[in-house]
């Protein structure tokens, strides 16, 4: 792992580096007294997480965080400060963590566990930001029909709410007429969805009843669901790109975008 620590106080900087090294032996830790040096490092090598002091002379930690994210959008930012007053601003720029000085080894471990604890093996995971995909044991699920994959995306978007076959058909085929042949084709799509999930032993997420479909949200780890819970990692991953391949998801994307930025309008 590669960490970046920035603080204009040499003793605090050394303490952070020593603490990180003790928590994760073997990690590469780059330390900087000047924000400009931190930016130079970020341009040259990949950084997993940056621990930033907020009150620094030439550039605040908040400003540095914003510029680091321009260079590396996926970098985790953990602010290290002696003041609680910056917490709201830290949230607005999608900070992953917030440590108050003086910090302990346990404090640092907690923040890192919060970030990397999510890397535990997950049986079924849905990705909605940056394009829809569903993974089972880390492998993408393959579908014989693209519409079967889209149907699953729509059900995940509904977060467990049942949809009738007529509702789902209207969404997947916006301009098509509701004909006998259309209904027959839709049944094939549902069958393909069921078979694709069964092949990877993930059929447990799909609920079928007479004339309706739903998924079981509790059986899926989903970035969208985590975003709604305020999970900073999920919030950090969203870039106005919720299921961009589907036109029906545009309204939901607008809702998510407003949810993410509502603090700026209050």
TrEMBL record:
Record-linked SMART domains: REC
Domain Response regulatory: 2-116
Keyword list, A-Z: Phosphoprotein
UniProt xrefs under InterPro entries: Bact_response_regulator, CheY-like_superfamily, Sig_transdc_resp-reg_receiver, WH-like_DNA-bd_sf
Highest taxon of the lineage: Bacteria
Residue positions where 4-aspartylphosphate is found in the record: 53
TM region positions: none
SUPFAM superfamilies linked: CheY-like
PANTHER family from the UniProt entry: RESPONSE REGULATORY DOMAIN-CONTAINING PROTEIN, STRESS RESPONSE REGULATOR PROTEIN 1
Stated name of the protein: Stage 0 sporulation protein A homolog
Organism placement in taxonomy: Bacteria, Bacillati, Bacillota, Clostridia, Lachnospirales
């Amino acid at each position: 792992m590669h960490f970046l620590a920035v603080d204009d106080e040499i003793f605090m900087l050394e303490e952070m580096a020593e603490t990180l090294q003790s928590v994760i032996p073997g990690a590469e830790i780059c330390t900087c007294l000047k924000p400009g040096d931190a930016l130079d490092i970020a341009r040259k090598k990949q950084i997993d997480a940056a621990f930033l002091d907020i009150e620094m002379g030439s550039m605040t930690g908040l400003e540095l965080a914003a510029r680091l994210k321009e260079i590396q959008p996926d970098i985790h930012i953990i602010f290290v400060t002696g003041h609680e007053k910056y917490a709201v601003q830290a949230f607005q720029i999608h900070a992953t963590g917030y440590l108050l000085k003086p910090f302990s080894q346990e404090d640092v471990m907690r923040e890192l566990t919060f970030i990397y604890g999510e890397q535990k093996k997950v049986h079924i995971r849905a990705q909605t930001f940056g394009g829809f995909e569903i993974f089972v044991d880390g492998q993408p699920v393959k579908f014989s029909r693209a519409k079967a994959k889209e149907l699953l995306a729509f059900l995940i978007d509904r977060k467990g709410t049942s949809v009738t076959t007529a509702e789902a058909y209207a969404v997947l085929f916006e301009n098509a007429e509701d004909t006998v042949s259309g209904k027959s084709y839709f049944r094939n799509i549902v069958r393909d969805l069921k078979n694709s999930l069964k092949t990877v032993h993930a059929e447990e997420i799909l609920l079928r009843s007479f004339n309706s479909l739903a998924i079981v949200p509790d059986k899926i780890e989903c970035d969208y669901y985590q975003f709604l819970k305020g999970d900073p990692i999920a919030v950090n991953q969203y870039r106005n790109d919720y299921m961009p391949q589907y036109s029906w998801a545009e309204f939901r994307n607008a809702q998510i975008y407003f949810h993410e930025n509502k603090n700026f309008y209050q």
